[in-house]
Amino acid sequence: MNIAETSLETVKHAIQNQKSFFKNGHTRSISNRKETLETLYRMIKDHEEDIIHALQMDLNKSEMETYATEIGILLEEIRFVLKHMDEWAEPKKVKVAKTHIGSKSYSVPEPYGVTLIISPWNYPIQLALAPVIGAIAAGNTAIIKPSELTVHTSRLLERIISARFDGHVLKVIEGGVETTGHLLDQPFDYIFFTGSVPVGKVVMEAASKRLIPVTLELGGKSPCIVDETADIALAAKRIAFGKVTNAGQTCIAPDYLFLHKTIKEQFITEFKNAVVTFYGPEPLKNDKYGRIINERHFDRIASYLDDGEILLGGKLDRTFLKMEPTLMTPRDHSVPVMQEEIFGPVFPVLEYENLEEVIDYVTERPKPLALYLFTNNEATEAAITGNISYGGGCINDTLMHIVTPYLPFGGVGESGMGSYHGESSFSTFSHYKSVMKQTNKFDMSFRYPNGKFGMQLI
Ligand code: NAD
Fold first, then answer.
1. Cα separation, 157 vs 161, whole angstroms
2. Which helix (H) or strand (E) holds 142?
3. Which of 67, 104, 224, 229 is deepest in the core (most CB within 10 A)?
4. What's the angle, vertex CA 365, arms to CA 335 and CA 343, rounded to 5?
5. ipTM computed for the complex
């Protein structure tokens, strides 16, 4: 089953529909926005089984993983946004400068208008709908373009959204590169893109032609550092969790490891124990262990096994597109596994002696989306967080910084621009209009050409 491209005419029509709907002011009302979010919430709840099934078909995601990383996150985000959006949507009074005495100033959040949300295949429900929550809360309409690679999820999203929404406020347009090209040619008011760095550049270039603001949630190589003071067994378990979730196909998965040379052997033993605890001695035979999205990505990831010596795992099952969690020592830093985003369960291990080596290595490369540090030493913590720029991350954990609505999530440099989740989703999809209301009780004549000093009462 393939996803068909959508024609240019259909794309144009969908946008025109939303443009006129936005213009009529319907989404300005907070209660209308809430109603849309409540409908979205009920839609997800009512289709939990369908979502679990679609993700099982597309990625062999287990029910538990789908609930934790897709459905649960979205429901929590909607509840959080519904609770706080009244406050976020209020105009905020700001201080008055001495030069402006007598006036009042406000910052007023207003929606951009019709937004485009382009999503990838790895968390195909969460990454399509999480930005929608912010877009709707802030008073926009949204067109979602899901990934064509997760066919069952794309079909499901189209079906359930078109059943609950008539397309004025929310619509799914399915397709691949051709359809995305049609969409990127249209006069959207905001584009929110989640995907790879190369396609992020295509999106930004297209947006620049119309000066459309963008958020880019991209990827890259996220380092994971374990120093000699860390709790090694706990670190190995939490790192293995970050790497095996969705079979490593997570934008913020730890991509490569930096292990202090004194704990390397112990770490490898503990990592192996963690994988056995999660999936038993033969992960390829475990139903709950995810698979790689397609043959092209499977072959790409499998080819990394030639880039060095395998320390753990390494078994493949091309029929079911499954790959063991694998630790390896890369031959050198120039091999593809050390140059490209891995996006799979292969984990290159580098060892280090001094923290400066790690800081130099990471800072000489594109700024990572995530960074994970395992340590019990506060000086190490300060050295890493103080000297390396990265989107976000955890100390003594992996992935968990993404699942709190209180931390804005996003990249920096090549790993992206802008952020979302919780209040930052609302602000991402809002323009903050600055308004100054002048007093008419007096006037300052010195501001005018040939004016006099002093205040004139009116
Ligand atoms: P991708 O960039 O190939 O595709 C993303 C979207 O862009 C899809 O909807 C696809 O149809 C569309 N697209 C693909 N090629 C296009 C082109 N040439 N022109 C226009 N549109 C095009 O990414 P992917 O393979 O779906 O996802 C994996 C990437 O996404 C990884 O790099 C990963 O790190 C990143 N990612 C980032 C985040 C984040 O939150 N920062 C989350 C998930 C994935």
1. 6
2. strand 141-145
3. 224
4. 55
5. 0.98
**283, 287, 291, 294: CA torsion to nearest 10:** 130
Q: Is 414 in the pocket of ligand 1 (CB under 6 A)?
A: no
Give me Rg for the CA atoms of the chain: 25
394 is catalytic: no
Query: Which residues, listed in sequence order, are joined to residue 416 by a DSSP beta bridge?
Result: 217
User: Across-strand partners of 442?
Assistant: 457
Ligand 1 site, residue 218, Cβ cutoff 6 A: yes
Q: Are 383 and 363 in contact (CB under 8 A)?
A: no
Of the listed 5, 65, 148, 217, which one is catalytic? 217
Spacing, Cα 176 to ligand 1 middle (Å)? 11
Instruction: Quick: pLDDT tens for 296-320.
Output: 999 999 999 999 999 999 999 999 9
Our answer to whether residue 48 is catalytic in this structure is no
Q: Are strands 316-317 and 190-194 parallel, antiparallel or unpaired?
A: unpaired
- φ, ψ (nearest 5 deg) of residue 253: -60, 145
**Probe ligand 1: pick from 122, 204, 367, max atoms within 8 Å of CB?**
122
Domains of the chain by start residue, with CATH: 8-218+415-435 (3.40.605.10), 223-402 (3.40.309.10)
pTM of this prediction exceeds 0.90: yes
Question: Widest CA span of the chain, in angstroms?
Answer: 87
Nearest to 292 by CA among 53, 59, 93: 59
Rounded to the nearest 5 degrees, what angle is found at the Cα of 367, between the Cα atoms of 366 and 368?
A: 110
pLDDT digits (tens, 9 = 90+) for 152-205: 999 999 999 999 999 999 999 999 999 999 999 999 999 999 999 999 999 999
| Length of the chain in terms of residues written | 458
